[in-house]
Amino acid sequence: MTLHAAEVGPGVGQTEDVGATGYATKRLVLASACSEACPWGELGEFLRDAVRPDGYEIILCRNCNRTEGPRLVANAALPPPLVEDDLRHGTTRRINAHVDFGITEASMLGWAYRGQYIYAKDGPYTGLRLIARIEDPTYLLVAVKPQLGISSLAEIRARKLPVRIITDFQPSVMPVLDYYGIDRKSLESWGGSLVGTKDITAATPFDVVISSLASPANNPESAFWTTLTVAHDLKFLDLDTALIDQLVDKADMVRTTARWGLLRGVDRAITTAGRSGEVVFARADMPDDIAYAIARAIDHQRGELKWFVRPYSIDPLTVGNGRGVPLHGGAARYYREKHYLD
């Protein structure tokens, strides 16, 4: 193993030569994420341990995350340089090996496959294939400080309120802002602002929270919900039915209910839109026997998923459903043997 100074500068990161990798070696590089409860990171650890009895060694690329996973897998590319956000979450090693397969969010895989949204300029990546879908629910929720005195987001534009809105800027959230006529330029002209979810603490000034990653789990992407709802008394708003219909039709979400007690302040059942699904995926050129082994290992070890930070589960009725992304032939063979595709 050889270590080199990484692109972020001397002393703060290293590139690691891991030796021969690829399908012929049974040493596969997985586009994963950080070890600090990042969903793709902990699912990478689950997968690494699940396939070990079959003789596979999974090398986790901890900085093959954010929107890059599908691109890296599709192009069999080398991992990108380390960035400050990687270091902040404990990722100090860059793997110097081509990426073989990956883990990402289910909708993101679909966008990459079809060349939509963040992949519109460089996609479509039609060589991507699903191996397994792992359920992982989050909700679109809107919460406000009660003293703001509003019962609908529509009042923000109508009254030109100078509110500070915390949002995750997900493609599933931007239609909410558009629907209620809230844009950055107008908001700032009223004295308000849009604030990202990075580095949110209980002391962060805010008036409104809009996020499709609502969950009581403490992974980095969702933990701010627990932080804010514990520290503040918040009022949760209902969304217009027409908006929920739009999100279901166009944003790859489903109609669902956030049940009482999901988070502190959720004092009733709230009809909303949600999403569920992280996916293990590969390229079409992955040999069938490898995809079969991965699908089988995930299924055989699914009981271990209950011990992770996120509420993961395997549903036999959806594990092979790529929602438009083709299922890899090797994985399909395993699921047919188990009658999951009936």
Describe this structure in words.
With 342 residues, the protein is of the alpha/beta class. 27% of the residues lie in helices and 23% in strands. The protein is built from eleven helices and 13 strands. It has helices at 39-51, 69-74, 84-88, 106-114, 154-159, 174-179, 184-189, 223-231, 241-250, 288-300, 329-337, and strands at 2-5, 14-17, 27-31, 57-61, 93-95, 101-105, 128-144, 164-167, 193-195, 208-214, 235-236, 254-258, 270-283. The strands form two sheets. Strands 3, 4, 6, 7, 8, 9, 10, 11, 12 and 13 form a ten-stranded mixed β-sheet that branches. Strands 1-2-5 form a three-stranded mixed β-sheet, with no helix packed on it. α1 (39-51) links the parallel β3 (27-31) and β4 (57-61). The longest helix is centred in the first third of the chain and has 13 residues, at 39-51. It is globular. The model is unreliable at 1-11 (pLDDT under 50).
Topology, element by element:
Layout: E1 2-5, E2 14-17, E3 27-31, H1 39-51, E4 57-61, H2 69-74, H3 84-88, E5 93-95, E6 101-105, H4 106-114, E7 128-144, H5 154-159, E8 164-167, H6 174-179, H7 184-189, E9 193-195, E10 208-214, H8 223-231, E11 235-236, H9 241-250, E12 254-258, E13 270-283, H10 288-300, H11 329-337
Parallel strand pairs: 2-5, 3-4, 3-6, 8-9, 8-10
Antiparallel strand pairs: 1-2, 6-13, 7-10, 7-11, 7-13, 12-13
Helix pairs in contact: 1-10, 10-11
